[in-house]
Design goal:
The chain is built from seven helices and eight strands, in the order αααββααβαβαββββ. It is α+β, with helices and mostly antiparallel strands and 173 residues long.
């Protein structure tokens, strides 16, 4: 898994111009929870890579399309339990938590889109503000027509072309 990540790191320098692979490798090796989370990102098709963002070091899902191993999920547990028919097996928030991760925020998603073109044929659930979630909604993003869009859906909806993108913030000890 680390070999895949190292290759991705070396091939995408603009995502992390001020960071060395050795420093990332050291942070990962020193934290079992980080290794598990990154392994889960990789196994579910997220193609994790390091992204420098607002002075922080993040590992983000950088797959061209929303991760294939995380599709057909509603937004969160509350939405899943409220659904009366055709209940999905899980939700984006629940699965991210199992992996030791969190959903990417809208601001982080828009930044990620400056580093490449993602979700050209799919969409990704993103961290939804509480005021939207309280009204039964959730938000997702995608790129179409050369720009990035944020949309809404009922949190209980799910589609075969929508999954979720995650981030993991690497913190120095």
């Amino acid at each position: 898994m680390l070999e895949h990540m190292k290759e991705r790191f070396e091939n995408n320098h603009k995502r992390h111009p001020n960071t060395s692979w050795e420093s990332v490798k050291r942070l990962l090796h020193d934290n079992e929870a980080y290794l598990f989370a990154v392994e889960m990102m990789e196994e579910t098709g997220g193609e994790p890579d390091v992204v420098e963002y607002e002075g922080r070091l993040l590992i983000c899902d950088c797959s061209k399309e929303t991760p294939s191993g995380r599709r057909s999920l509603c937004y969160d547990r509350e939405a899943r339990l409220a659904r009366k028919k055709n209940t999905p097996v899980s939700s984006a928030v629940e699965e991210a938590e199992k992996m030791g991760l969190r959903l990417i925020s809208e601001k982080e998603y828009y930044y990620l889109q400056t580093l490449g073109e993602f979700d050209m044929k799919t969409s990704s659930w993103i961290l939804t503000p509480g005021e939207i979630r309280l009204k039964g909604g959730a938000i997702f993003c995608e790129r179409r027509y050369g720009r990035v869009f944020t949309f809404h859906n009922g949190a209980d909806s799910y589609y075969g072309v929508r999954a979720f993108r995650c981030v993991l913030e690497l913190k120095q000890k």
